[in-house]
Amino acid sequence: FCTPCLQECLKPKKPVCGVCRSTLSAGTRALDLEKQIEMTETTCNGCNKKMYLSKMRSHAASCSKYQNYIMEGVKAVTKEPLYNTRNFPNRFTFPCPYCNEKNFDQEGLVEHCKTLHSMDAKQVVCPICASMPWGDPNYRSANFMEHLQRRHRFSYDTFVVCDYDADEDDMMAQVLMRSLRDK
Hints:
Elements (H helix, E strand, L loop, with lengths): L2 H7 L21 H9 L1 E3 L6 E3 H10 L1 H16 L26 H11 L7 E2 L1 H5 L8 E2 L2 H8 L4 H4 L8 H15 L1
Antiparallel strand pairs: 1-2, 3-4
């Protein structure tokens, strides 16, 4: 994860997991996991020296053979990317349309706008809607705060299996078929 994304996940009000976005509970040490790390042996991929996992981080920082091993892996991965990421729209993080602060997830953008821009009447384009295939990147909402409250109370991905390439009629047909099967 990049630093801005991690910072968004660790907001003081409600820190969330960087993967599933569920709320993190108060920190407690995983003593059983610490013990397992202290007792598990591993081998350095650079120099083949055996050590406990708990010592691996400090060893890796000083082992030139390990650092060469990592760099070879980085070179292999970055030579030919599997796909061009520019062809895929970002539907996970959004900029604030008022102040251009970046890397908000949908819930974070709603909270940010409610906190800092609730009185701003400027007409803006909804970055969430604009990222969707059916969204119009030029449509300026007359009341963006009302739009956020009504349209983006929850994330599409959380409650439905999204097929962003399907049109509304196809999605409706899929929902109806699923509801018939669930009876």
